[in-house]
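In response to reviewer comment 3 from the previous cycle, which asked for concrete evidence that the modeling workflow produces usable outputs, we include below a single protein chain processed end to end. The sequence was submitted unchanged, and the resulting structure tokens are shown without manual editing.
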Amino acid sequence: MKNVVLLGSTGSIGTSTLKVVEDLPGELRLVGLAAGNNADLLVDQALRHRPALVSIHDPIRAAALSSRLEGIPVVSGPDGLLQLATLPEAHVVLIAIVGTAGLAPALAAIRAGKDIAVASKEILVMAGQIVMEEARRHGVRVLAVDSEHSAIFQCLDGRPPSSVRNLWLTASGGPFRDASLWPMDALAKVTLHQALKHPSWVMGRKITLDSATLFNKGLEMIEARWLFDVEMDRVRVVVHPQSVVHSMVEFIDGSILAQLSSPDMCLPIQYALTYPGRSPNQRVSTDFARIGSLTFENPDTDRFPALELARRAGTVGGTLPAVLNAANEVAVERFCNNDIGFAQITETVARVMDNHVVIPQPSLAEILSTDQWARDAAHAIRFP
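The workflow returned the following structure tokens.
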């Protein structure tokens, strides 16, 4: 039995994780749950799974929850996340918190000797070098939950970085892939409703919008650089609208291995939680005859410059990836609030990056300080 702590239990990854745990009652047990502010769903989850500890972001809501949870202890805020991440009985901590809030719990879990399963790209984008060095120092595993990185992990199967020519991340292309329907001038007029219509996946709002700009793929490029210890010029992107090939590894002899399945996040979540084994599950079934064909194309970096911004950030390194991440978070929030246009998300990030003086080998404190600087800078940018 593997004991799992789930940080971010009420989001899309969190609710899929609960399905996986419920599918494998003899293998997985939830011992800790943390949520933002969706108290009703958290209560339902906790009463079904009876974890040892529950956390919610707001201390006031935490006090109100105690009477509803039939004796399950409740904690709150950043300290609550740290308590969950270091629960003595936990074997693996799955981090599915959007944004930077997952970084401190991730490091705490690693230092407490827990494996971590990473669904929050920001952890490795902001502090990939620190996180991976800490994992090696403490002898724990950093397991991929993103479908793309799970695919690469499965294809590598323990082979060293020296055997890799290229890692190929596949991208659906998002809702605006077709340039004939969405030329550059049309992208400037995209609405929030249009941007949230992802063609392949059902995800949370932030990651869906990042998929529409291709920032999600850019963040995944940096994440892959750290997870698999390869340079940025060996991390490539190809657009694959069917989202069946989740990613590929091209080896130095020219052979390419790919992981394929119908898109369903339960599969990579289950693989991360049951690794190194595989467990039976009937949730994912792939019918190739029904799919018919698999197609690939180069990404349009003129209409979607986010990929080149991410490549630049990952190549330069230091504090620049943290700037990219933080500025994008603020820009997405501003777009959601109708404060800037869709195309101005990328422009905001580019301007903040251009104004940043990079710290080459930052400490964690410098990364967090840079994160705040970039957020302030992104909020301050004004467009005509």
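The two ends are 58 Å apart (CA to CA). We consider this sufficient to address the reviewer's concern, and the full set will be provided in the supplementary archive.
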